[in-house]
Design goal:
CATH architecture: Alpha Horseshoe
CATH class: Mainly Alpha
Bound molecules: adenosine-5'-diphosphate, magnesium ion
Radius of gyration: 16 Å
Protein name: Dihydroxyacetone kinase family protein
Length: about 210
């Protein structure tokens, strides 16, 4: 039911907030290598606001799509920083995609939602793969979900493949020089350290899998 799906959104965002509470220092450390060191703080602020907004929408009787839409707005409004605006837009696009596809096979539905989220981030932020941003993890994640769904895999297997793709791609950003964002002026210094936004993306989708796939 829609009320049950709304509760999945609420539980997912609560789990993401919990995860970012744990990861905050590490994400800050990664961002401080060549950026301004606020990635952990900003992500936790955004996820906290999103979790609160989703819970409030669910309490008011709204469904999953409205909960996600409110969550995306709250994340963008409260996180501060580039990543907050991009996560807000991505979550808003996921909400929109889920609203458009109420009854598809779950792996295909997840793939379509992921693709819409990534497309929104790319449209807004203008990053290409290899620019050393969250897109370097998000694009392979969406592509792996699409491929697994297209091959008829069950949701658990599709998510596992996509999480592995995101994690591997996030770690591989260590070899790159940032071409966008606040880390660009100190690009050389960031070589050897993965992009904080790619690392947080991979960790967040792993948390999402734990509540979305039984
Ligand atoms: P800020 O850089 O404004 O302090 P954060 O520290 O929260 O914001 O986020 C930094 C992360 O945002 C980077 O590690 C990168 O992954 C991501 N990022 C920055 N600019 C872009 C962009 N144009 N497109 C996609 N992701 C971006
Ligand atoms: Mg920063
Ligand atoms: Mg900042």
């Amino acid at each position: 039911t829609d009320a049950a799906e709304a509760q999945v959104v609420v539980a997912t965002l609560a789990r993401v907030r919990e995860l970012l509470t744990e990861l905050e220092p590490e994400l800050g450390r990664l961002d401080a290598v060549a950026g301004d060191g606020d990635h952990g703080r900003g992500m936790l602020r955004g996820a906290g606001a999103a979790a609160d907004a989703a819970a409030a929408a669910a309490d008011a009787g709204h469904g999953a799509v409205a909960c996600l839409r409110d969550a995306g707005r709250a994340w963008a409004d409260r996180a501060g920083g580039t990543s907050g605006v991009l996560w807000g837009a991505g979550i808003g696009a996921v909400a929109h995609a889920l609203a458009a596809r109420p009854v598809a096979d779950p792996a295909a539905r997840a793939a379509a939602a992921a693709r819409a989220g990534v497309a929104a981030v790319v449209t807004l932020g203008g990053a290409k793969q290899g620019d050393k941003t969250m897109v370097d993890a998000a694009e392979p994640f969406a592509a792996a979900l699409e491929q697994a769904a297209g091959a008829g895999q069950a949701p658990a297997a599709a998510w596992d493949a996509a999480l592995e793709a995101a994690r591997t791609a996030a770690q591989a950003t260590a070899d790159l020089r940032p071409r966008l964002g606040r880390a660009r002026p100190l690009a050389e210094r960031s070589v050897g350290t993965p992009d904080p936004g790619a690392v947080s993306f991979a960790a967040i989708v792993a948390a999402v899998r734990s509540t979305v796939v039984p």
